[in-house]
Write a structure and sequence with these properties.
Strand content: 5-15%
Strand order of the largest sheet: 1-2
Structural class: mainly alpha
Helix content: 55-70%
Order of helices and strands: HHEEHEE
Number of strands: 4
Largest sheet: 2 strands, antiparallel
Shape: elongated
Number of helices: 3
Radius of gyration: 31 Å
């Protein structure tokens, strides 16, 4: 029993399990923020444009079958607004930040080409190690 608890403790405290748990908690909190953004800001904007914030009452009938396409419209609009909000408020700024911080200066060259045999030789070399041509200072 003691070995089982030790093994369980090792499993739970492993880095990737803790990272996954933190990621899920942050993801749930972020989902709440995005849903509030869509519900409280973007949906009223759509309502101002189209005149109604809720399309769930829209339907049509064929014989005795009722097709409630309004629920589908609500789900589609929610999906599009959530994905647009995530794209413009998360993905684009993160791409901009990563591209801004990933620009590193190119390192100084440590080699040069021998003009005779075209092999790479150390920058401070005075003679080519491949063709033994005497070279001037770099």
């Amino acid at each position: 029993m003691r070995g089982l608890l030790t093994e369980f403790k090792t499993f739970v405290l492993r880095g990737n399990v803790v990272d996954l748990a933190v990621g899920i908690v942050i993801g749930l909190a972020f989902a709440a923020v995005v849903q509030a953004l869509v519900r409280d800001l973007l949906t009223p904007l759509i309502a101002a444009i189209f005149g109604r914030p809720d399309f769930s009452a829209l339907s049509f009938r064929i014989n005795r079958s009722v097709f409630r396409y309004g629920d589908f419209l609500n789900a589609m609009i929610a999906f599009l607004t959530i994905t647009a909000a995530v794209f413009f408020f998360v993905v684009k700024p993160m791409n901009l930040l990563t591209s801004h911080f990933s620009h590193r200066e190119t390192p100084e060259p440590t080699t040069r080409r021998c003009p005779w045999c075209l092999m790479d030789i150390p920058l401070k070399a005075r003679r080519c190690g491949y063709c033994t041509t005497e070279l001037g200072a770099a």
